[in-house]
């Protein structure tokens, strides 16, 4: 159904220059993109974008984003929700690793990204990919739930379903989500006075990788009908997987990301794999320009907050193990008292009573 959705091919040198408003001409692409994400993720939950003047409260939007906000206030509210989901999902996805997406959780008055996201690292690649996927994902779901008046359910698939199945329900409108999400996400990279050409190409590529992961996350969802739950007929529709599943797919791409260099290829410069430049960059791989620190020790210049006092798993052999998380420095144990419901009993009809039980667990934090 969505396989025919046109993909975006980026040639920054051919992109039409976006003319910025007075006062924004000197803002670089990286600064504008960061200001936008910071403004959205720190926007108070109580703020509802229901008047055009509210768009002015979202400092950092480039002119095309501000115009989109003024012309589609409902869409802007959805994008704000997506920004919050990016922060929450990223930190949950990397909770078991040295880099735990803490770079996103910045004070609202912070002047710029931490260097780990500002230098074109693989962490930056993941954040851009997840952000692009989340915005389109949230818009597609908002169409389904009726939160956006300018879109509705996705189209019914053209293929004939198997016997016992029928198309129905309300499909997530991925097509609309991709169109509007791309328009908003990629706007900062098309500013007149942008940052480095290499960074623009990297961010545009990784954003498209995120949207491709979204296209690959379309699955069939069905609801059963029949006497006494017999499920003799199933009503089905095309829906998106949860954002956390898409984030896990992008995490796999993060772990196998390709380091690239910016060099002439024909008549213009392109990103090519650093060590295997006999092949072009693949459409489904995340790319990065600068190597990351090991994130073991605090290093503000490199954007590392370190792993001191991070909780680790003594019995694990994965990235959350005390050996890997603590970088060989060792760890300190501490005990924690947990109060849980226990000895629950069902009473006819219809309630449950439980007792409260205490247990002491041992935790470990890195030295």
Question: What do these coordinates show?
Answer:
With 367 residues, this protein is α+β, with helices and mostly antiparallel strands. It folds into two domains: 277 residues, no CATH class; 60 residues, 2-Layer Sandwich (Endo-n-acetylneuraminidase fold), CATH 3.30.2460. Helices cover 32% and strands 20% of the residues. It is built from nine helices and eleven strands. The protein has a three-stranded mixed β-sheet, with no helix packed on it. A three-stranded mixed β-sheet has the order 5-4-6. Strands 9-11-10 form a three-stranded antiparallel β-sheet. A hairpin with a 3-residue loop joins strand 10 and strand 11. Helix 3 packs across helix 5, helix 5 crosses helix 6 and helix 5 crosses helix 7. The longest helix has 24 residues.
Which terms would index this structure?
367 residues, 11 strands, Protein Wnt, lipoprotein, 20% strand, Endo-n-acetylneuraminidase fold, 2 domains, disordered N terminus, 9 helices, three-stranded mixed β-sheet, alpha+beta, Wnt
Main β-sheet description = 3 strands, mixed
Q: Please count the helical segments.
A: 9
Measured on Cα atoms, how large is the radius of gyration? 24 Å
Choose one word for the global shape: globular
Proportion of strand residues: 15-25%
- Tally of discrete structural domains: 2
Q: What does the average pLDDT come to?
A: 82
Helix and strand pattern: HHHHHEHHEEHEEEEEEHEE
| Percent of residues in helices | 25-40%
Structural class by sheet pairing and helices: alpha+beta
Record the strand order, biggest sheet.
1-3-2
Distance between the termini: 52 Å
Note poorly predicted spans.
Answer: 1-32, 107-112
Number of E-state strands:
11
């Amino acid at each position: 159904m969505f396989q025919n959705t046109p993909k975006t091919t980026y040639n920054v040198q051919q992109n039409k220059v976006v003319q910025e408003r007075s006062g924004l001409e000197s803002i670089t692409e990286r600064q504008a993109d960061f200001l936008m994400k910071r403004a959205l993720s720190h926007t108070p939950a109580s703020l509802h974008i229901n008047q055009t003047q509210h768009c002015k409260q979202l400092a950092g939007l480039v002119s095309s984003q501000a115009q989109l906000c003024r012309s589609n206030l409902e869409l802007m509210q959805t994008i704000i929700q997506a920004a919050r989901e990016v922060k929450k999902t990223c930190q949950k996805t990397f909770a078991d690793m040295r880099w735990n997406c803490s770079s996103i959780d910045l004070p609202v008055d912070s002047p710029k990204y931490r260097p780990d996201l500002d230098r074109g690292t693989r962490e930056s690649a993941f954040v851009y990919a997840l952000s692009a996927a989340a915005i389109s994902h949230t818009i597609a779901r908002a169409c389904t739930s009726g939160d956006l008046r300018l879109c509705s359910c996705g189209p019914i698939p053209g293929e004939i379903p198997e016997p016992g199945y029928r198309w129905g329900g309300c499909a997530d409108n991925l097509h609309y989500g991709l169109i509007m999400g791309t328009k908003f996400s990629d706007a900062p990279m098309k500013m007149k006075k942008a940052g480095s050409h290499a960074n623009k190409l990297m961010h545009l590529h990784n954003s498209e990788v995120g949207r491709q992961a979204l296209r690959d996350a379309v699955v069939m969802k069905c609801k059963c009908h029949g006497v006494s739950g017999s499920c003799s007929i199933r009503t089905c529709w095309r829906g998106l997987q949860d954002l956390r599943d898409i984030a896990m797919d992008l995490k796999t791409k993060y772990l196998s990301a390709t380091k690239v260099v910016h060099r002439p290829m024909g008549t213009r410069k392109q990103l090519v794999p650093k060590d295997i430049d006999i092949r072009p960059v693949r459409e489904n791989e995340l790319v990065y320009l600068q190597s990351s620190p090991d994130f073991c020790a605090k290093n503000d210049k490199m954007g590392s907050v370190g792993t001191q006092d991070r909780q680790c798993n003594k019995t694990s052999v994965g990235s959350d193990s005390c050996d890997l998380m603590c970088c060989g420095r060792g760890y300190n144990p501490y005990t924690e008292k947990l109060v849980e419901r226990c000895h629950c009993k069902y009473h006819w009809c219809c309630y449950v009573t439980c007792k409260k039980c205490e247990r002491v667990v041992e935790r470990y934090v890195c030295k």
